[in-house]
Specification:
By secondary structure, this protein is α/β, with parallel strands linked by helices. It contains 14 helices and twelve strands. The strands form three sheets. Strands 3-4-5-8-9-10-11-12 form an eight-stranded parallel beta barrel, surrounded by six helices. A two-stranded antiparallel sheet has the order 1-2. Helix 10 crosses helix 11.
């Protein structure tokens, strides 16, 4: 969206004229359209990442979170093992057929494959845009039971360095908890922080992924989620507009509208799709480049089924996926640190990306699935 600037010259003279009793004439406000340095590149990146059948591989877990997952399958948490696992992901054959971008953690952006090829170059070779997580994580929000996301300090300088390293898009995750609130201060902080981040990163040449996650925690029903999400998404796009963020050059990464994890009344994929699409159509401008859903603790199978249900009719946006656990859960359990299992693990990742690529087209048909693909990946009070 072009930046807007208003001339103040028409206001002071008008005030003087009125003060002197002279006839005041309204003057047209000067409108200056200003093109951004990276506008063309941002639009190209967003367009290429949202081609039919494509989504995003989220592999930007912090060292602590990635480490806990490695330790869960008996692998020591150290930099080399994190590097080995992430090399397995990005070197999966034909990954670029259904993956348009991969979100990396800062450590990962600067790592290389065993043969010396940088991760950035390995992704580019498959036609995949490298991205970077730029927020600095959640902290307790004073005088509430909620949290806020830090990371705006120094973001412009960091974003410029990430761009030099080869990143072309970025992500900022902020969360809203229903059982812990939600308070107006938490929702406002979430929305405003996301908007400032998006504006800063577009000016640094990075397509921002805006992630206002409504946590699954709680026993609330789907209608409660819909009500809270309506509020959060409205606030988010209000502040995005206030900050002159270009919707055509950003991606939204929301959670799907469903019941809380502990709600006894579960929803069908069709019900989740109906509520989520109703929300999108009432809150998200059609100009937005893409809607890249997070899985948020859904099982691998459910995340694909829900996405498929949302693509049974045409949408004004590219409705797709930006999954971490829903793509990696079975992959990690299969590999478990054993490089002899690398080919098998990569084949699973390739299949999962293909299945979600089909879901983006509304053409996924569920077949036989493993136990791990059906199990929930939900974690209470999840920290990325």
């Amino acid at each position: 969206m072009a930046a807007l600037a208003f001339s103040t010259k028409s206001f002071a003279p008008r005030q003087r004229l009125v003060a002197r009793g002279q006839k005041a004439h309204s003057k047209r406000v000067a409108l200056i359209t200003k093109a951004g340095k990276y506008d063309d590149e941002l639009l190209e990146t967003a367009t290429n990442m949202t081609k039919p059948g494509k989504g995003i591989l989220a592999m930007d877990e912090s060292n602590a979170t990635c480490g806990s997952r490695l330790e869960g399958v008996g692998v020591e948490n150290n930099e080399e093992n994190r590097r080995r696992y992430r090399e397995l992901l990005i070197t999966t054959p034909n990954l670029g057929e259904h993956i348009g971008g991969a979100i990396l953690f800062e450590e990962t952006l600067y790592q290389s494959c065993a043969d010396g090829t940088t991760f950035v170059d390995a992704l580019k070779a498959q036609g995949i845009y490298p991205g970077i997580k730029v927020d600095k994580g959640l902290k307790p929000l004073a005088n509430t039971n909620e949290s806020w996301c830090q990371g705006l300090d120094g973001l412009a300088d960091r974003a410029a360095e990430y761009y030099k390293q080869g990143a072309r898009f970025c992500k900022w995750r902020s969360v809203v908890s229903i059982p812990d609130g939600p308070s107006r201060v938490a929702v406002t902080d979430c929305a405003y922080g996301l908007a400032r981040y998006a504006a800063i990163c577009q000016n640094a040449g990075l397509v921002p992924i805006v992630e206002p996650e409504i946590l699954l925690d709680g026993d609330h029903d789907i209608d409660t989620t819909f009500e809270v999400a309506s509020w959060v998404w409205a606030e988010t796009f209000k502040y995005l507009a206030d900050n002159n963020v270009s919707f055509e050059r950003m991606l939204l990464k929301p959670s799907m509208v469903g019941p809380g994890a502990d709600c006894p009344k579960r929803s069908t994929p069709e019900e989740v799709a109906e509520y989520t699409l109703r929300m999108l159509k009432s809150r998200v401008p059609p100009a937005t480049a893409g809607i890249m859903f997070l899985s948020g603790g859904l099982s691998e199978l459910d995340s694909t089924l829900y996405l498929n249900a949302m693509n049974q009719s045409p949408n004004p946006w590219h409705v797709s996926f930006s999954y971490a656990r829903a793509l990696q859960n079975t992959v990690l359990k299969t590999w478990a640190g054993d490089d002899e299992k690398k080919d098998e693990a990569q084949a699973i990742l390739a299949r999962r990306t293909q299945e979600n690529g089909l879901a983006q087209l509304g053409k996924f048909v569920a077949g036989d699935v493993s136990a791990s693909e059906s199990e929930s990946t939900y974690q209470k009070n999840y920290v990325y």
